[in-house]
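If your schedule permits, I should be very grateful for your opinion on a structural question. Kindly check, if you would, that the fold set down in the tokens agrees with what the sequence suggests. Thank you for your consideration; the sequence and its tokens are set out here:
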Amino acid sequence: MATYKKEYSYLVENIVTECDIYSADGHKFHTERAMWDTGADTTIISSRIVNELKLQPYKQGGIAGIGGATGSNVYLVHVLVPTGDFVTSVEVMESDFEDIDVLIGMDVIIFGDFLITNKDGKTIFQFRTPSEGGLEL
């Protein structure tokens, strides 16, 4: 079992951590700008990652959000989450993010236990793999 815990001395609106994206041929992109989003069904990567890893789309998909729906290329990658665990063969979509490199969606989050707590003006984020149910701070 591996647990990643990040403590903030203030209340945060976005949980941003590091993660690695690996292409099928083993090339790696490391980022400190991976935002976790329980409202996203699918993990999304930036065009910067697509270009750096020279990823080739294998199909088309669609991203639906507040601004409406848009078409997107779909890629198959492996995601190394901050616990040190791989989520393999993840279908990710591409977006033209500017402030982040990866939006980690529920397709990755479901492989562990996810907890955010806000107490005494501080935020604590915890992710544990494999899932054991019932988290304690």
User: Anything to note?
Assistant: The chain has a mean pLDDT of 90.
